[in-house]
Structures are given as structure tokens and as C-alpha cells.
Amino acid sequence: MRNIYLINKERSGKTYRTKINDASTDNSPAKVTGTITEEIGSIGSIEMYVYANNPGYNVIKPYSSRILATDQQGNPIFFGRVLRVTPEFSASGFGRKVICESMIGFLHDQPVPIQVFNDTIPNILNKVLGLYNKTHSDVWKFDASGIDGELLAEKHEIQSEGESLYEFISNKLFSALGLEMRVWVDGGVVANDYYQTMYIGAYVTATSVSDAITIGDNLISYQCDEDATNLCTKIVPYGSKLYTDEDNLERVTVAEVNGGDITVVGDTSVYDVCKTVIFDDIETAQELLDAAEDYLLENEEPQRTYQITAFDKHLLDPTFPAIVLGNYYMVNAPLLNINKMYLRITKRTLGIESPSNDTFTVGSAYDATSSGQIAASAADVQSLTNYTSSLEKYSTRQIRALYGEFDTLHANAVTTDTLVSKVASISTLKADDAIIKNIQTEALTTDAIKAALADINVLTAEQADIRYLTVAKANALYLTAEQADVKYLTTDQAEARYLTAAKADIRYLTAEQADVKYLTVENAKVTYLSTEVAKATYLTAETANILYLTTDRADVRYLTTDKADIKYADITLANVKAGAIGTALIATGAIGTAQIADGSITSAKIVELTADKITAGTL
């Protein structure tokens, strides 16, 4: 049994409550018949029949009366308002059929102006909720508890088209986050409170409850419906139209990225059904192929809807957990191949006068609410830890799990926030960001690896871009680096375009071009040296081709030069084939004998002169 209250407000502002259904059996006039329906992704409803002798018969006011339903302990399970009241007469007597909507329907009372929002979801949500709070006495607040901070910080560009606040929030804001919207009142409903502070949040902290629904105990009935309306294992996808001219009806296909074939084929081992699917908003072949593969993944199995009728043991014993919308409950029915499987409650229908008529829908849901809203459509399984049915193969489109333990998992694709595995054999791993404490692999192919510490026995790479490398010993056939800071390098042969070293001990150096700012060498044997400027304290060379040489002292055994500009030279023996000396200071007796084949001496003091022929103007 559930307590049902009407809450009305007089013109004076005074509010009062009327109990129209009493959970106890003492107050027989205060009784109604009907059901309370709640579903994830839709507006909840109450449909009930109020008889003429009910104390609330004459005070039910459409759109004005608020409605409150509680359990026997007074905990609120529904808060909303009366939508329609229809008088009826039957063999049971006079009465009124009353239809109510939950408080989330209040958001239909406020439109969103046409505009473009470019902000984070919390900022947009608080802004549009502020529109409602300015013009209504009820207050709406956004609660971001449990929602990923990165999702909340990301900016979105969202266009409002004048729709109601409910449609804008559910269809555009929460769909952008990929979350399911839920609403609640904080701390229950205080007596005689007509206006409430209501909260909008998301189903992010679902609870797992074990030993809640068991065959032979409180499981009354079980039904599984399969809908093959959208079943397909092959599709011919078409994207947006190609507007080459007005009469052209061609669309984007996947042929150019699918080997010339316009058909995308999925798993045809069980079903072989082909359909045509149009994606009007897709303009490229690759995006169309990705969308087609996702579509096949979602529809390669019939859509299954599970419906169970169970008695909520919490109504008899408050120590048992109540069956709450959005939570996961273990269903123990081995005969039905659902032995110890956690199933999520996506819809519940509660009997007002008889809790034994409570029914719960798990898994996939379809449009079956009195308000006509579309329900959730994902088959959710909380945990398969103790799943021990006799099924040889379990096939599902999607598994959502707060915790999952698998002995063996085979999957075409796995998307997970956190993966913990003692041993994992993975053929192909694709990850935007992977943090791995210990990896052992025979072969690893990756575009980028970021590691705080990597211990690699053997690394073979065609190309490696490493910012900082510490290695005890590196055996590299070929190493290319824009910049390398090497403390100690031992190599048989090194070819470097640019080398900067604090200290280099090089046994053998071959370089096409070397730009050395400062070089200290104990002994250097250079076959050929070409340099613009060379400053050497001591230089020994067999052959040196020097454009410009500045030196304190040069000991040259043999010098060949096109031109030599020497300020001071102390020469033991000079054999000059042809030379021009402007001024020469020669010590007395420095030249004993001079043989001049062809020369001109302007003025000289000669001790002895021997010549075959002398021609002179004045001698």
C-alpha cells in the first residue's frame, strides 16, 4: 500500500493536504485504485480511480492540485501534479479517473528563447533554469554530483529553437553528455509544502543489490520479448545528397573506403538480413562507414525487453533494500537462464492498493508510457561475477558494468575507463591515452609511447623520436637525432651532422664539414684540412690548405703558397724561384754566396761578385 496526498493552495496562499489513499487498512474511505509508473528518460505518471466517497473527490483540481505518494515509512516516491480529471460511472459506482504527471513535467511550463549557447553544460543549464526560477515559485537546481569533471568542463555549441525547457534539457544538454536525466526533491517533502526545491542530476551512482529478486520467493512472473523490427546484419548505407544539379539523386556511399562495395557486412553467422539505411547528416565516405558499422553492432541481434513481476520485500521488512528505479538487482532464476544475473530496473509500475501487482522492466525498453515519452534503449548488465547459467554463449549489444569479472572475454571492441588484468592477450590495442605499469610483449607497434621509466631488453625501430634517453648500453646500427646530450659515447663509427660535446675522445673522425668552436687535441693526424680561420698553438701537418692562418709560431718543413704576407721571417734556407722583396734587412755576412738567375738589385754592398755577364747603366 502507498499513501497518496492531494496538496492544494487557496487564493489566500494557504496550503493544505488531503489524504486520498491510506496505506493502513483502518481508514477505508480513503482508498483509490490505480498505478504509479516511472521510467528512465520519461515523465512519470499516476493513473488512478477516485470514488465519490473519497475525502478528496471534490477537491481534485486539474493542473492546480499537487500529488504526493509515499511508502509506509513516509519516504516520497512520487511528486507531481494533476493533469486531467474525467468523471466516470460504472457498475462500481460514481468516480473520477485522474491522470497525474511527475514534477519533471513542470519544465514544460517554460520555453527557451531562440538563441545559440556556446558554454559548458552546467553554465547553460543554470542559465535556462534561471529562466524558470524567475517566473515560478518552484525552484530548480542542478546537481553535478558524480558526473565526470572533464565532461562538465567541455564547451558545447547548442542551438535552442524555442522548445520547452524539458525538451531542451533532456534532448540537447544531457544527450550531449551521454547521460540519463533524473530529478528528485531534497530530503523528502515537508508537510503542506505546495512549492518545492527540485534537483536535476544524472544516473551515475547506481547501486548493486544482491539477493533481491528470487524465483520461489518474491519473483512472481517473468517475460522476455524479442523485437526483430530493426534486425539486420548487412546494410547499404547512404549519406547526404550530392547536389551536382537539381535532378541528381545520388548520395554519399562507402564504395571508395570499402573496396568498391556499397554494402557493409556484419556478423551473418546467425542472421542474414540486409537493409538500406540513410544518414542525411553524413558527408564523407569514412564517416558513413563508421556509422554503418555502429548501426550493425546495435542491430545484429533482436532487441530484447525483459519484464518481471516481483514483490518488494522492503514493504514488509524495511531492512530489505527497496527496488528503486535505476539500480541493479540480482535476479536468481536458474530455470530461466538468469541465474544470479544483475539487471537494471529501467521502468517500474507500482500498484497503489496492492504491492503484489508491482512490475519491473529491465534491459531494453520501448515507448509504453502514458505520457508518450521515449524511454531508454540500452540493455544494461551490472555484473557477471557469478553468472553460472548453462548458456554456452552470451551475446549482447552492450554491457555496462560498475564491476565485471570475466574468466575469458572475447570482444571485437572494448571501451573502458579502467582495465585491470593479470594476463591480457590483445591482438590490436588502440588507445588515446594508456597508462600501463608493466607491459610484456613480443612485438609492439605504436605511433607514440610516453613512459616515466621503460626497461627494454631489445628495441628495434625504424624511427624513434626520444626526448630523453638513459641507457646502460646502446647498440645502434643507425641513429638520427636533432639533438643528443650524451655523457659518454663509444662507437666504431659515428656520422653526425651536428655534434656538441663537453668532452670528446675520438679515435677516428671522418667529417664532410666540422664546425668546432674550441678543440684541444694532444696529437692530431690530418690528411687534409680546409679551414677559413685556424688558431693553433702547435700544428704538425703533412699537407695544409689554409685560406688565412694566424699563429704565434710555425715550424714548417715544406710550405707551398700562392701568396705569403710575412711581417717577420727567420729562414735558415730559402730557395725562391721568383720573388719580390720590398725591403730586406740582412745581417752582415748573413749571405755568403748568392746565385741569382734573373734578378734586380737596387742597392747592395757586395764583397765578392762572380758573373758571366753584367749589364749596367752605372756600375
Key structural traits:
mainly beta, 4 helices, 619 residues, Pnp Oxidase, Chain A, 13-stranded mixed beta sheet, three-stranded mixed beta sheet, elongated, Phage tail protein beta-alpha-beta fold
Query: What is the residue-mean pLDDT, rounded to a whole number?
Result: 75
Unreliable spans: 364-398
Give me the CATH architecture of the domain at 3-105, please: Roll
Q: Distance between the terminal alpha carbons, to the nearest Å? A: 151 Å
CATH topology assignment of the domain at 3-105: Pnp Oxidase, Chain A
Return the CATH class of the domain at 3-105. Answer: Mainly Beta
Task: Give the helix/strand layout.
Blueprint: E1 3-9, E2 15-21, E3 32-39, E4 45-51, E5 66-70, E6 76-90, E7 93-102, E8 115-120, H1 121-135, E9 139-142, H2 149-153, E10 155-160, H3 165-177, E11 181-185, E12 197-202, E13 208-214, E14 219-227, E15 234-238, E16 264-265, E17 274-278, H4 285-299, E18 303-310, E19 328-333, E20 338-351, E21 359-363, E22 530-531, E23 534-535, E24 545-546, E25 549-550
Parallel strand pairs: 9-12, 13-19, 15-17, 22-24, 23-25
Antiparallel strand pairs: 1-2, 1-5, 3-4, 3-20, 4-7, 5-6, 6-7, 8-10, 11-12, 14-18, 15-16, 18-21, 19-20, 20-21
Helix pairs in contact: 1-3
